[in-house]
Amino acid sequence: MSEVFAFAGEIKVATMLASVIPVLMREKIPDRLIESPRSVAELAENTAINCDRLHRFLQLIEVKGLAKYDADTKLWHSTEKTAVIAGQFANDTWSWMFSRYTQEGILELGEILYSEKSVYEHSGKKPIFEHLKENSDLLKKFQNSMKAFTKLHADAVERALDLEGCNKILDVGGGDGSLAIGLAKIYPDKKFGVYEIPEVIHMINENVASEGLSQNIEAISGSMFESVPHSFDSILMKHILHDWRDNDCKTILSNCRKALTPGGKLFIIDTVVERGHPAFSIKVFKDINMLAQLGSKERTTEEFRNLLEETGFRFEKVTSAGTDDIVLATAI
Question: Which residue range or ranges hold the O-methyltransferase C-terminal domain (predicted)?
């Protein structure tokens, strides 16, 4: 019985942390702790925070080693782990992953065992991408979070991508252009395009211009469900197909195939779930996350092979890229 209560307690603490930490980050509490040890009053200075409650919330994150209290000086200190919840990078990531929208969805996770829906569809809410289009603040948090994840794994992905023989590369669903920007710096002789929905185009143009790469990268507005631009010899998609169910993926892949001439390369950057892989536990977590948010999935090698063969591609190989993988296919 005690083990049951202990396990339930761990889950409850995790849920509380997911609610509390984003607010502490919003008020720059972790950043202030890293700057110097401070009293609760000093941490709450210039905010509307209740000091007694802040002290109690800090005790909560102390449980996980994210802060430390000195009872003699009555000062709160940072720890080595505090950096995990400090800075813009962490804030962007946590703001999306633990927004109220995503939090409420996770609480309904178990119920979708009985359906083919995502947690949001199950609870009567709009699908996530429709919701993002109508909520600019959440869309920005989502894009910033995706940008943060791209940066986190960018080196591994960029090293693993072999663009030899590719001259014009289109990043379908390329977000704010972060991946294309990183690749354009490595391959200054190549041209890149970023294909995105109209709501994101201004973000791409701003980021590309700030990097001085307007001559190397073109932002193109449209829907991958309707068509894909034909003026590129290669296509890459990072974290796109795992957002969609098989029938939607077939539509996207068919449009990609129409856009390429035979021999054109397709690079799918996603998670390939296979037992025995060192990162299997992380891959399973990603799979359940996609199931919860979108009713979609991370796929096995065989599932990718089947999708590609049904849409006019020849499956070539899978290359590991950190916690991501790169599936290479050729248009036939």
Answer: 113-314
H/E element, 168: strand 168-172
CA angle at residue 98 from 92 to 102, to 5 degrees?
120
User: Amino acid identity of 130?
Assistant: E
Assess whether 169 and 44 both reside in one domain.
Answer: no
CB–CB of 172/193 below 8 Å? no
Check whether residue 319 and residue 201 sit in a common domain: yes
Look at residues 218, 176, 213 and name the one whose alpha carbon lies nearest to residue 197: 176
Residue where a domain terminates, one of 90, 106, 128: 90
Q: Helix H segments across the chain? A: 2-26, 29-35, 40-44, 51-63, 87-97, 100-106, 119-122, 128-134, 136-160, 178-186, 198-210, 246-259, 280-294, 301-310
Domain C-terminal end among 90, 123, 156: 90
pLDDT digits (tens, 9 = 90+) for 168-212: 999 999 998 999 999 999 999 999 999 999 989 999 999 999 999
Indicate if 242 belongs to the active site: yes
The reported pLDDT for the residue numbered 1 is 62
| Tokens read off for 266 | 């397709």
As for how many domains the chain has, the answer is 2
Is residue 99, in this structure, part of any structural domain at all? no
C-beta separation of 192 from 166 below 8 A: no
Low-confidence ranges of the chain (pLDDT < 50): none
- Cα distance between residue 284 and residue 150, in whole Å: 20
- Calculate the dihedral angle through the C-alpha atoms of 329, 191, 216, 319, rounding to the nearest 10 degrees: 30
Same domain, 82 and 152: no
Which of the following is catalytic: 122, 239, 242, 277? 242
Is 154 found in the same domain as 31? no
* Containing structural domain, residue 29: 2-90
